[in-house]
Amino acid sequence: MSSSNSHTSTIGAIGAPSRRNTELALLVFAVVIPLFAYMNVGLAISGELPPGMLGYGLGLGLLAGVAHLVVRKFAPYADPLLLPLATLLNGLGLVVIWRLDQSERLQQLGKASFGAFSAAAPKQLLYSAIGIALFVAVMMLLKDHRVLQRYTYISMIAAMGLLLLPLVPGLGKNIYGAKIWIQVGGFSIQPAEFAKIVIAVFFAGYLMVKRDALALASRRFMGLYLPRGRDLGPILAVWAMSILILVFETDLGTSLLFFGMFIVMLYVATERTSWIVFGLLMSAIGAVTVASFEPHVKVRVDAWLDPFSKEVIAQTGTDQIAQSMMAFGSGGTLGTGLGQGNSDLIGFAANSDFILATYGEELGLAGIMAVLLIYGLIVERGVRTALAARDPFGKLLAVGLSGAFAIQVFVVAGGVMGLIPLTGMTMPFIAYGGSSVIANWALVGVLLRISDTARRPAPSPAPNPDAEMTQVVRP
Amino acid sequence: MSELTLTVMRLGFLAVLWLFVIVAVQVIRSDLFGTRVTQRGARRESGGRQAARQQASPPPQRQQGGGRQSGGRQRRGAPTKLVVSEGTLTGTTVALQGQTISLGRAHDSTIVLDDDYASSRHARIYPDRDGQWIVEDLGSTNGTYLDRTRLTTPTPVPLGAPIRIGKTVIELRK
């Protein structure tokens, strides 16, 4: 076709397609993989297909189906990958928790310490259901994430309240040296997991208003932008808060998570490298100071520096870290196969804080890399959502939530693998723990809501009847 | 359960897990969205096609970017792309497919110049009937320069000759 005549070109936006069918296909895949794993575990342990296979399969499939239908109805343009990735992790978590339930060693340990052993997998399935319910609620009630912007300071107070709850006498519960649980009815809840989302809302709202002052009003000194004293106020306040969490609740993970999230969001909001330098310096100072006089933290640091020494094991009363590293080592490249490892030697918390060691042993380096990549993909989709979001609040919120997710994965994986001192946090989605699963489903819900707003095509302009009539036709 | 079955299942599971990761990455790859160059009038495609041909005005053609060559009209030695070699857009290339390329600060230009010295509709580059590429200044404030000379009339662009608009330099390349 001859095209030598001239017409003008326009650059138009390609709207992201809806992609709901892609999501459905991936979701089916994400439900089939855990079923395969479940079958594999059953065959390896007892030589026959596990009896609860139909139940768990239907349960997970039903949850995924409900979540998908809700997304289809309420967020049709949302990211197609977040839901399948989260579902796969949740499903794999269920399988591995069930696999650890079958371990006789852990069953005896449970009987010895709590009087009776109760299987964790059914409870985890229940928590997943509650998590999906919260996800559905977020999808249905939060029509526009910008509504959250109105609650900037309320969410600050709410986050503070949630963080302080475990310190309230009678409500808080001290489990193994960390005061991060509260006891409500028969359940223990970790409020910090929920505070993570709430505080991201506060940071996003606050930084959106203050970012110009933080970015521009500064003096240059030795290649670094030194912020003014009054702008340093908020960062100092958050720092003090995270140190206080560390001191009073002895919860290294949460304080690291909050401070890290604030630094990430500050950097994204202001584009100033100096904030990262300040943040790293301040967290180093804080950590070293606290570690030198807080015995609980000091023990953790000792166990990190020398996990195999007899004194340290005697002092901490457990050889969890040593066992965890042995599990990773014995897994090798391709792993021992699901249900055939000995990661239950870790004992207490084998299915929560240390669950990654089971993946490392039974799926090997190849498997754990895949799992970490899936986490990476979730973070990538979060950051991609932030890039696509048009409003600064949505951008900051998406970066903050995915940053928090990434930091949490790093802190837990690093602790279990001996890269950093162990902290009492749970691996999102795969670890046993109600608060963690429920809060992370809510987090994915908020991310999906932002991505739906970001990817929704702009409404097409009203057709202009004059346009057709004023065409210039050249002979 | 035999050792062999378990080994096969173990490796099979790892393969399936990685397959999921790869599929997810493929979905990301196909999930690109952003901007696309569309020729104006492409929306009137179906109805106006016959009439347009009779008026010796070619039917609008939809350009999707990428390396699609227009028919067999490409001459040997003819430029195939336009490259921005200086200025804020350095490195940008636009495939030449017989369409007019408009340059300027206006948002609907093919190349939106972020240049203080550019006018909103600064210049355009288009092929004439022989496929020779022509640059034409559209009455810009600060002028369009081909090499060192300021353009006053539509002028053919030799391969590799710099077209200057403010701080931006554009070349046609093979």
UniProtKB/TrEMBL annotation, chain A:
<feature type="transmembrane region" description="Helical">
    <location>
        <begin position="192"/>
        <end position="209"/>
    </location>
</feature>
<feature type="transmembrane region" description="Helical">
    <location>
        <begin position="24"/>
        <end position="47"/>
    </location>
</feature>
<feature type="region of interest" description="Disordered">
    <location>
        <begin position="454"/>
        <end position="475"/>
    </location>
</feature>
<keyword id="KW-0133">Cell shape</keyword>
<keyword id="KW-0131">Cell cycle</keyword>
<dbReference type="GO" id="GO:0005886">
    <property type="term" value="C:plasma membrane"/>
</dbReference>
<feature type="transmembrane region" description="Helical">
    <location>
        <begin position="82"/>
        <end position="100"/>
    </location>
</feature>
<feature type="transmembrane region" description="Helical">
    <location>
        <begin position="363"/>
        <end position="383"/>
    </location>
</feature>
<feature type="transmembrane region" description="Helical">
    <location>
        <begin position="125"/>
        <end position="142"/>
    </location>
</feature>
<dbReference type="GO" id="GO:0051301">
    <property type="term" value="P:cell division"/>
</dbReference>
<feature type="transmembrane region" description="Helical">
    <location>
        <begin position="254"/>
        <end position="270"/>
    </location>
</feature>
<keyword id="KW-0132">Cell division</keyword>
<dbReference type="GO" id="GO:0015648">
    <property type="term" value="F:lipid-linked peptidoglycan transporter activity"/>
</dbReference>
<feature type="transmembrane region" description="Helical">
    <location>
        <begin position="230"/>
        <end position="248"/>
    </location>
</feature>
<keyword id="KW-0472">Membrane</keyword>
<feature type="transmembrane region" description="Helical">
    <location>
        <begin position="151"/>
        <end position="172"/>
    </location>
</feature>
<feature type="transmembrane region" description="Helical">
    <location>
        <begin position="429"/>
        <end position="448"/>
    </location>
</feature>
<dbReference type="InterPro" id="IPR001182">
    <property type="entry name" value="FtsW/RodA"/>
</dbReference>
<keyword id="KW-0812">Transmembrane</keyword>
<keyword id="KW-1133">Transmembrane helix</keyword>
<dbReference type="Pfam" id="PF01098">
    <property type="entry name" value="FTSW_RODA_SPOVE"/>
</dbReference>
<dbReference type="GO" id="GO:0008360">
    <property type="term" value="P:regulation of cell shape"/>
</dbReference>
TrEMBL record, chain B:
<protein>
    <recommendedName>
        <fullName>FHA domain-containing protein</fullName>
    </recommendedName>
</protein>
<dbReference type="InterPro" id="IPR050923">
    <property type="entry name" value="Cell_Proc_Reg/RNA_Proc"/>
</dbReference>
<dbReference type="InterPro" id="IPR008984">
    <property type="entry name" value="SMAD_FHA_dom_sf"/>
</dbReference>
<feature type="region of interest" description="Disordered">
    <location>
        <begin position="38"/>
        <end position="83"/>
    </location>
</feature>
<feature type="domain" description="FHA">
    <location>
        <begin position="101"/>
        <end position="151"/>
    </location>
</feature>
<dbReference type="InterPro" id="IPR000253">
    <property type="entry name" value="FHA_dom"/>
</dbReference>
<dbReference type="Pfam" id="PF00498">
    <property type="entry name" value="FHA"/>
</dbReference>
<keyword id="KW-0597">Phosphoprotein</keyword>
